DNA sequence: ATCACTGGTGGGAGCGCTCCCACAGTACCT
DNA sequence: AGGTACTGTGGGAGCGCTCCCACCAGTGAT
């Protein structure tokens, strides 16, 4: 029963057929047992399991993938260069959540970076080859073609952070609107009233929602919305510094700032210091993300925490469901396939 | 020509057979073309390539893996929890190098964490299923059973940092011995003579080699080796602090310290400050790794830089070679399958 | 007794490739 | 002319699974 030719088999991993022979059953039965089908008698199942153990049988993934037309793998696609991925705790937390959701599954996780054009081309090729059953998409910009590609290939996908209010993909997001409100209301409750907002990149939907939250919190408090108190940032420290400088020039009497990210807040802090303003005595500062930066800032920064790990877990659960019922997502009603998780304000001495 | 049953084919990815029909050639010929075999006439090749393009053909990886008994994937196995992986720039640099080496290859990289027992069990299963053609092993401890498992499964592997002088696996390492010598010689050239050393975890071979380098540099300089100037650390900040405290007690006249890692140096720095010693006036300090910590320390830390990205690239090249000639590694002479890369001293104001 | 059913089971066919053998054609010797 | 040695090509067999159809008891209703 030699294999044909001199193919590089190293000594012989047992096959399902050999397990069947050993257990004295048919191939189909072994397949049923290893796939956990209920339509197998207890005695047979025990016999098969014994044979599996004796032979040290491990199913051949390639054969299974070929026959069943699935890969038992999903990809976490990060449309950023590795560098940013590692720099931000966001991704590490996300990964932890994804790992947790996958841990009692057969599913394998692939981590794919698509920061450069070259990497994106590889990714497209990879997806076209259907080497994954589903895709987890994080931090996707509004004009990214990736979701469309996925839809066209009919590969299930879940996105973290909808691209717009009209997002068609299933998504898991934190409550950017609510988080922003929490931040502003916190500042108001501390007796501040001239509260400025430095936004994130406004082509990111979540950044828009934070602006909305800021606006509504201000007007609900009867303070009205002074557009001059809003200045666009871009999630970077440099942007934060620049925006804060502009704001101080325009409104020297600002007594509080809500920044759309901790990094932005760090930039704002520098500008405030440059201008001789004390934190929090003269100006209170609140950031967003509750990252390591927030904890290590001088003074420690009040910040809005997003449940990132939880988001990773939820996204994964959602994706696994989609993969399991294997229908292209868009074709279904979006019922409750879009979830929003609550944020939490972590109060420190900057406010 | 319908597929049998109602298997979830979504509309029909073209198969190699269809490409063959379209190009008016046989299956074998198409296979030769897409695998870059030279034994195809130019005219035929052109015809096949045209058909591939028209049909948008992408080879089915599962079928290929099954027939050819390979997976076109290698794994980077990190025997640490995700947290440490992300905390240390080491891994991110390594990943960059690996990615670069893989970038003009069909090979896919999998990132696998094996920090917990549970994850290790999954990994073992994964490897047993032969889902990768080769494995890149980083930061493996001396008693790790993983390399043996790999050998037993006959899966090619390359290790970063040999486990001992008798390492049997192909490896790529930086010159720990030479790096340590550089550090110590640098301190001596600055006029220091009471140079202490805080070691790393001594069950890590590289840490041992650094001690060797320290010893030889001291004795070659005619200073002899005072064992009292050597104190064991464990690569952590806490360990560095503790060791430094001990050293200061034992030898209050120390005028320089070579720490086995930047993190260790950070701990040592704290202990020195606690004891009222100024850096570098009273005590000069040199670390190892040239991490972000070194650049941001107060004062900036002189450190030994390892070419991590380069190591990643070399490891990958080595592994690809091993995979390509597909013979189990141990069975071959280890010729020059173990390489050592030079380090570089980055001088800053701490020394 | 006959006729449904039901839970269990065996095994053929097929997934889309790669490998290799066979063979046609051409070229260059004897 | 016949041999030998290529290059280029077609297609059978097989990789190890899953799927599904056929079938074989039993069981209970008729």
Automatic annotation (TrEMBL), chains A, B:
Pfam families in the cross-refs: LacI, Peripla_BP_1
Top-rank lineage group of the source organism: Bacteria
Keywords of the record: DNA-binding, Transcription, Transcription regulation
PANTHER family given in the database record: HTH-TYPE TRANSCRIPTIONAL REGULATOR GALS (PTHR30146:SF109), LACI-RELATED TRANSCRIPTIONAL REPRESSOR (PTHR30146)
SUPFAM superfamilies per UniProt: lambda repressor-like DNA-binding domains (SSF47413), Periplasmic binding protein-like I (SSF53822)
Protein name: LacI family DNA-binding transcriptional regulator
Coiled coil: none
GO-annotated molecular function: DNA binding
Residue ranges of domain HTH lacI-type in the record: 14-68
